[in-house]
Amino acid sequence: MVLFFVMEILPLEVTAMGAIGILLLFNILTWQEAISGFSNAAVVTIGAIFIMSRALVKTGFLEVFADFLVKKGGKQKWLTIFIFLLTVSIISGFINNTAAVAIFIPLAIDLCQRFHISPTKVLLPLSYAAIFGGTLTLIGTSTNLVVSSIMEELNLAPFSMFEFTKLGIIFLVLGTLYNIVISKWFMPSRSIISSLTRKYHMGSFLTEFK
Fold it and tell me: Are 145 and 161 in contact, with CB atoms under 8 Å apart?
C-alpha cells in the first residue's frame, strides 16, 4: 500500500479509501474506527476552508485584486510582485496552503503577462509564499490542525489560533526577502504562453479548439 502512495499508481484518495477497505475486510478496523476520521475537527475545518477558498474565485475577487495590485505597484513590477506574494502569505495564514496556491495561480500568470515576466520566476515563489504564510496560524497548514486534534485526543492542551505567530512572522519576513531578492536569480526564464503561441503559429488552432 505504501508503494501505491509513493508511485501514485492510483489517485491518492482512491488508494486511501482502498486501504481502509482492506483493513475493514480483514477485521483490523471496526466500522466506527474506519469512519471516525470524517468527524475529526481537523477534517471538517479543512473542508470548510476549501469552500471559502472557492468562494473567493466565484465572486470575482481575483480580477479586482489584480487590478488593485497593478494600480498600487504602478510600473514597478517587482514591487507589485512583492505586494502580491506578501498578500498570498497573509491570506494563506487563514486558508489551506494548497487552496491558496490553487486560487492565486491564475492571478500570478495574469501578472506575469502584464509585466512580461517568465511565469517560472513567480509560480515557485508563490508556493513558497503560501508555505511561509501557513506558519502564521493554526489553520494555515492542515498538519497543524491534525497535530492539534491528536493532542486534544490525548488530553493535552491543543494549540491556540495564534500560538506560533511570532515564529511564523520571522519565517515570513526572511522567506519573502529571499523570494524577491535572491530566488529570481536562480529561477529559469522561460517563454510565456503567448510568445510560444506566436512562435509556433498555434493561434488559429487554439481558437478552433476553444
Answer: no
Helix (H, G, I), strand (E, B) or coil at 104: helix
Pick from 178, 79, 83: nearest CA to 128: 178
| CA–CA gap between residue 122 and residue 147 (Å, rounded) | 31
| Other CB atoms within 10 A of residue 191 CB | 13
Q: Which three cell numbers stand for residue 208?
A: 478552433
In the DSSP assignment, the letter for residue 190 is -
C-alpha cell at 182: 535572491
Average pLDDT of the chain to the nearest whole number: 79
**pTM assigned to the model:** 0.65
Q: Do 172 and 135 form a contact (C-beta atoms < 8 A)?
A: yes
Measured in whole angstroms, the distance separating CA 95 from the mean position of its chain's CA atoms is 9
* Cell numbers that stand for 109 in this block: 500568470
